[in-house]
Specification:
The protein is mainly α. 83% of the residues lie in helices and 0% in strands. The chain crosses the membrane at residues 30-50.
């Protein structure tokens, strides 16, 4: 009975380690995708602001 409990605890620990590493990888991947997307958005916004037509006016 003792070895069944120990085996179950080891199996649960291994499962949590695998699941934790996968979740950690996904969180890091999503973070870096968000950083790259944010930099691209800021770059596009800055380009659009600098490249914008000066002759455009609101209401005209």
């Amino acid at each position: 009975m003792f070895w069944k409990i120990v085996g179950g605890l080891i199996l649960a620990w291994a499962a949590f380690m695998v699941i934790g590493s996968l979740v950690g990888f996904l969180v890091k991947a999503v973070f870096w995708i968000a950083v790259i997307a944010g930099a691209g958005f800021l770059g596009a916004a800055a380009y659009g602001a600098l490249k914008g037509d000066d002759k455009k006016k609101i209401g005209s």
